[in-house]
Amino acid sequence: MLNKINFWKSSRKTVSIDERIEQVLKLPIPKHIAIIMDGNGRWAKKRALPRIAGHHEGMRIVRKITMLANRLNIDTLTLYAFSTENWKRPKHEVDYLMGLPEEFLGNFLPELIEENVKVCMIGNNNRIPEHTRRAVEKAIVETSANTGLKLNFALNYGGRAEILDAVKEISKDVKNGNLDISDINDEAFSNYLMTHFLSDPDLLIRTSGELRISNFMLWQIAYSELWFTDVLWPDFTEAHLIEAVEAYQRRSRRYGGIHSEESKK
Ligand code: IPE
Ligand code: IPE
Ligand code: MG
Q1: pLDDT tens sequence across 123-152
Q2: How does it assemble (predicted)?
Q3: Domain count, the chain
C-alpha cells in the first residue's frame, strides 16, 4: 500500500507557477479580489520576533501578490491594511503600521508606475498621520493615468463607519431636495460608499485561520465568494493566490437563483 502511495506521489507531475497561471487564465478570472491580510503578529511570535517584524514581512508579500494580480489581469486588488478598530493596539505598533504605506510606496512606487498599477485608497483620512496621507496621495496622483491593476488600500477603513457615512450623506441629499426617497436602491446606495468607483469583490480571501469578516466591506461582499486559509499572511505565496483563484473558478455563483443549466429543464 505504502509503495502504491509513493508511486502515485512520485508519478504526479509538479506543475510550475507559470503553467498554473496559464491554466487559470483560460477560465473567468475574478474581477475584484479583496484580502484580509491577517496573521502578521502570530508569524512573528512563532519566531520570537516583535509583532512589527511580522508587519514588515507582510509588506514584502504585498508586493509579490500585487505583481501576480497584475499578471493575472485582475481589475482590482483591495488589501485590508488597517481597520478602524486597529487603533486599539499599542501606540508603537500603530505608529509602525502607519509608517508602512510610506515605506512600501517609497520602495515600490517606481515599480508600480512601471507595471501600470493604479493606486487607490478607501478609508477615513481623518486620523491618518500627515506623512502617511502625503505618501498615499503622491502615489494616487502619480499613478492616476495608469490603466492596469487597481491596487486599493483599505486604510483606517471600517465597513460600519462607511455605511453610516453613506446614510448621513443620503439623509442630507433627501433633506435638501436633491434625492427622492423612492430613488434609494442598491445602485444609488453603492454610489454613496467609498467604493463607488469599484465593482464589488468577486473573491474575498482571509489568511491566518480566523473565520470572520472583522468589519470589512460589509455591503460589498453580499455575494462575494469566500476563501479562508490557515496560512499566516507573511507565509502567503503566489501559489496560495492561484489556489484561491482555482477554487473560485470551481464555484457556481447563483445569486439566489438557480444554475443556468437547471433553468432549461
Ligand atoms: C494583520 O496581522 C495586520 C493588521 C491587522 C494590521 P495582525 O497584526 O492582526 O496579526 P495577528 O492576527 O495578531 O497574528
Ligand atoms: C483585520 O484583522 C484587519 C486587518 C487585516 C487590517 P484583525 O487582526 O484586526 O481582526 P480581528 O481582531 O482578529 O477580528
Ligand atoms: Mg489579526
Answers
A1: 999 999 999 999 999 999 999 999 999 999
A2: Homodimer.
A3: 1
86 is catalytic: yes
Report the residue among 84, 97, 208 best suited for mutation to probe ligand 1: largest number of ligand atoms under 8 A from its CB: 208
Q: Is 207 in the pocket of ligand 1 (CB under 6 A)?
A: no
Structural domain range at position 85: 28-159+200-252
Catalytic residue among 3, 6, 18, 38: 38
Tell me how far the alpha carbon of residue 41 lies from the centroid of ligand 3, in angstroms: 7
Q: Please report which ligand is nearest the Cα atom of 40.
A: 1
**Cβ within 8 Å of residue 232, ≥6 positions away:** 38, 39, 40, 42, 43, 46, 54, 207, 208
Please determine, for residue 261, whether its predicted confidence score (pLDDT) is greater than 80: no
Q: Which of 10-19, 163-172, 198-207 is least confident?
A: 10-19
The answer to whether residue 243 sits within a structural domain is: yes
Distance CA 22, CA 230 (A): 26
pTM of the model: 0.94
Check the CA dihedral 248-152-234-239 and report its sign.
positive
Q: Is 37 helix (H, G, I), strand (E, B) or coil?
A: coil
**Nearest bound ligand to the CA of residue 44:** 1
Quick check: is 190 in a domain? no
In a domain, residue 209? The reply is: yes
Catalytic status, residue 38: yes
Q: In this structure, which residues have their CB less than 5 angstroms from ion ligand 3?
A: 38
Question: Is 166 a member of any domain?
Answer: no
**45-92 pLDDT tens trace:** 999 999 999 999 999 999 999 999 999 999 999 999 999 999 999 999
Distance between CA atoms of residues 146 and 251, nearest Å? 31
